[in-house]
Amino acid sequence: MMHSVRRAGWRATPALFRRFSTAPSTDDKLYIFDTTLRDGEQSPGATLTLKEKLLIARQLSRLGVDICEAGFPIASEGDFEAVTAVAKEIGGIVEGRMSGQPMRIAGLARANFKDIDRCYDAVRHAPLNRIHTFLASSDIHLEHKLHISRTECIERAVAAVKHARSMCDNIEFSPEDAGRSDPDFLVELLDAVIEAGATTLNIPDTVGYTVPTEYASLISHLRANCKRADEVIFSTHCHNDLGLATANTLSAVQAGARQVEVTLNSLGERAGNTSLEEVVMAVRTRPQHYPYKVDVDSTQILRASKMVALYTGIPVQPNKAIVGANAFAHEAGIHQHGVLKHAATYEIMTPASVGADSELVLGKHSGKAAFKQRLEQLGYAEIANDEKQLTALVHEFKAVADQKKVITNTDIEAILVDRVAQPEAAEAWTFQGLQLVAGTEATGDKVRATSTVTLVDAEGNVHHEAAIGSGPVEATFKAINRIIKSPVTLVQYNVSAVSGGKDALGGVLVHIQPKEGDIEDEGDAVARSEATKGVPVYTGHGTSTDIIVASAISYVSALNKLIALGPEGNPLKVDVSTGSGDRILDGK
After folding, report:
1. Helix or strand holding residue 362 (H, E)
2. pTM (2 decimals)?
3. How buried is 186 (Cβ within 10 angstroms: 0-12 exposed, 13-18 middle, 19+ buried)?
């Protein structure tokens, strides 16, 4: 027989049951700094278009994020334009924000004047802006990457912060690889940059090396020993290489950090960054341990998560905390029984608290007003209020409804990815249709699949091509290659059901990489291989009740991104030091 052991003075408290608090017991502010558009985009295959970045930034504002790191302006002209657009179009939005203040727009810059000038030129358009500059501080980085001494490190950092402060009054400094730096040297470095004008000190665990007690101890050490520590905000930036990013972040918050750098869905280099949704819901669900004020509308979390997953082409794992498909699912009989009796038996937060509400479906008889209202509810007000886009989308929605009877929110969001969030230049090619003859070569009758594809270019010219393949998808991709003639390698092809039911929309996700040389085999080759390191990956997403049509849409979408963004791809592959071709691992 098992006996429970209770400590002296132990008593049951509401914390042991489901507890969700939107009213923290203190006004001690915890700032949410989201870097999905910068560090998150460094995830392989997560290259985003300008439209996609703007849609995500708008949702981050609606979510209540305090600071949005919109990109790395010096990296490329495209990244500069994206940060500038976010600053201009999203930076002034106040509507729906719990704080009553607009989202601060930040840009990343290395510790040199050229980077900092370019960064300020991009973020200055936002009412609240920030320059975030960084320089490595660990001996391994100073010696092997930058080839400078500790003294030179301090001199460079001070010069950079002073220059940034001459233009902007909100400056963040990050000593890259702080988690493996000498704590006493960090104190010396941070004292110098505080004196130079830094207002936020970010302490990055760049390679995900530290453990919670160690990282919290570092924050405590810096706060206790930096001379003017009470005049600045200490920030966390943790990577998940050991699966400890969220734990490290929360431990540091308890040690006095008041800004957390996070991404939606834990996106980021390698194993990713601290998860926004996990930190916010930990603070909200356990206010006894984290009595801090967070101005986030948590009911927008799931919507933001889905948007990021769709646009980046990186799906959320089903058992992901907070936003995974199974986060509120109960299969075990004893769990189901308990939840049916009282939800708090196995749920520590309500599904509604993160936006997982039940939804009403739309159908072919639903009017334009109903579709407009649903778009606004999903966070696409700017599209809902664009009469031309709305009319075209309603026509698309009803065409789908004719085939699958009802349309869910998931269907709508999937269709929006295909039809709305493409780069301007990507409109060079539009999929119009295909005709397919399926083959059965494998059964011995030697009949191979044949696909005839129709695409329309930017001038409205119609192009037809046919190709033969070992299957209908390969034949379709070959026909598209013959028209567009852009040499690529197909590195990933995924098929999934967008929603449930036998009439569900099918979703196809493709990842491609540009390759050297001319198109092989008269322009129709479909080269397939593992992803090549150092070469940008472009994603395309397509939805249709016909999986071959969805495949064609996704492939054209990926090629369009390649055409619009160029073969250099991910603009975050820039030098981190003079004469170095190293890639910035996490930007700090």
Report:
1. strand 362-363
2. 0.80
3. buried
Find the length of the chain. Answer: 588
Phi, psi of 261 (to 5 degrees): -95, 125
Cβ-contact 51, 317 below 8 angstroms: no
Residue 563, pLDDT score: 84
Q: Which amino acid is at 559?
A: L
| Beta carbons of 47 and 41 less than 8 angstroms apart | yes
Question: C-alpha distances in angstroms, 46 versus 41, 185, 204, 359, 440?
Answer: 5, 36, 22, 29, 36
Question: At a CB cut-off of 8 Å and minimum separation 6, what does 260 contact?
Answer: 30, 31, 32, 33, 235, 236, 249, 253, 274, 279
Non-local CB neighbours of 122 within 8 Å, separated by 6+ positions: 70, 71, 73, 80, 83, 84, 87, 107
Q: What is the pLDDT of residue 535?
A: 76
Residue 482 half-sphere exposure toward CB, CA atoms < 13 A: 20
Question: How many CA atoms within 13 Å lie on the side-chain side of 581?
Answer: 1
What span, in angstroms and rounded, lies between the C-alpha atoms of 39 and 264?
A: 11
φ, ψ of residue 160 to 5 degrees: the values are -65, -45
Q: Which pLDDT does position 175 carry in this prediction?
A: 98
At 579 the pLDDT is 33
SS (H, E, C) 414-463: HHHHHHCCCCHHHHHEEEEEEEEECCCHHHCCCCCEEEEEEEEECCCCEE
In order along the chain (588 residues), what is the average pLDDT of each group of 10 residues?
Answer: 40 44 70 96 81 93 97 93 97 93 98 98 98 97 96 98 98 97 98 98 97 98 97 98 98 98 95 96 94 95 91 88 79 46 64 73 77 81 84 81 73 73 64 85 68 90 92 93 90 80 77 72 55 75 87 90 69 38 37
Long-range contacts at 276-280 (CB < 8 A, ≥ 24 apart): 276/32, 276/34, 276/36, 276/65, 276/301, 277/301, 277/305, 277/321, 277/322, 277/323, 277/354, 278/246, 278/321, 278/322, 279/32, 279/246, 279/249, 279/250, 280/32
Task: For residues 555 and 526, give the distance between their C-alpha atoms in angstroms, rounded to a whole number.
Answer: 11
- Pick from 265, 277, 197, 210: which is nearest to 237 by CA? 210
Q: Which two tokens stand for residue 198?
A: 């830094």
Contact 85, 423 (CB under 8 A): no
The position carrying tokens 């493709």 is: 510
Distance separating alpha carbons of residues 302 and 353, to the nearest angstrom: 10
Residues 6 or more apart whose CB falls under 8 angstroms from that of 24 comprise 283, 287, 291, 292, 293, 294
Would you state the pLDDT for residue 533? 66
How far is it, in rounded angstroms, from Cα 285 to Cα 288? 9
Q: Which amino acid, 408?
A: T
Question: What are phi and psi for residue 181, nearest 5 degrees?
Answer: -95, 160
The b-or-e profile of 527-559 (16+ CB within 10 A means b, else e) is beeebeeebbbbbbbbbbbebbbbbbbbbbbbb
Which residues neighbour 430 within 8 Å (Cβ) at sequence distance 6 or greater? 455, 456, 556
Instruction: Mention every residue, 6+ apart, whose C-beta is less than 8 A from residue 5.
Output: none
Q: What pLDDT does 126 receive?
A: 98
For residue 389, what pLDDT is reported? Answer: 83
What distance in Å separates the CA atoms of residue 46 and residue 308, rounded to the nearest whole number? 9
Distance from C-alpha of 316 to C-alpha of 278, rounded to nearest angstrom: 14
Please choose, from the candidates 359, 288, 347, 297, the residue with its C-alpha nearest in 3D space to the C-alpha of residue 322: 347
